[in-house]
Specification:
Blueprint (H helix, E strand, L loop, with lengths): L2 E5 L1 H12 L19 E7 L2 E9 L10 E9 L8 H16 L2 E7 L3 H6 L3 E9 L3 E8 L4
Parallel strand pairs: 4-5
Antiparallel strand pairs: 1-2, 2-3, 3-4, 5-7, 6-7
The protein binds coenzyme A (COA).
């Protein structure tokens, strides 16, 4: 059975590269807050293979609220998508955010906006382009009071 597991940032790099940025320099897969002790990285593993990864980073931004955690590097191997792994990871990170207090934000690819929307994230502002990757939207989520 695939299992949810805590990872180190370094364990997330291969999927960030192959799923999210296959044509971009490898250095873009190291996020500045990766090793901050407040950040957390989770994955789904099966038979020693990592099928999916996601990170929650301490990367507050004033325009959406300084208590907001950033969800970044959400990547599921192509053959493993639409099996519920992304949902499992996002729900795990949302539960941690809810426990710590605050909310979450993410720069979401427009192709994944409906996925985040299903998990309670709401779009803020207009679509913008990230060079070399494509159109994104800022999305935010706060736990129910
Ligand atoms: C987007 C992604 C993280 C979703 O993870 P996943 O494991 O494929 O999704 P799940 O199987 O957990 O899907 C959960 C729900 O979201 C829906 N969903 C999944 N991917 C979707 C997408 N791209 N667009 C719209 N809905 C999507 C599913 O239909 C499912 O809905 P349901 O519960 O009503 O059946 C994954 O497909 C992925 O890595 N895609 C490529 C990289 C990417 O775009 N990452 C996000 C960067 S912001």
């Amino acid at each position: 059975m695939p299992e949810l597991t805590l990872l180190k940032a370094a364990d997330c790099i291969p999927l960030r590269q192959s799923v999210l940025r296959p044509d971009r320099p490898g250095s873009e897969n190291h996020y500045p807050q990766d090793d901050d002790e407040r950040s957390a990285h989770y994955g789904i593993r099966h038979r020693k293979k990592t099928l999916a990864v996601a990170s929650m980073l301490h990367d507050p931004r004033g325009d959406v609220g300084s208590e907001m955690w950033r969800i970044r590097g959400m990547a599921v191997l192509p053959d493993e998508q639409r099996k519920g792994y992304g949902a499992m990871l996002l729900k795990t990170l949302q539960a941690i955010v809810a426990k710590r207090g605050g909310g979450a934000w993410a720069n979401v690819r427009t192709t994944a906006a409906d996925f985040y929307g299903k998990h309670g994230f709401r779009q803020e502002g207009d679509v913008f382009d990230i060079e070399g990757i494509g159109p994104h939207v800022l999305m935010t989520w706060r736990p129910e009071p």
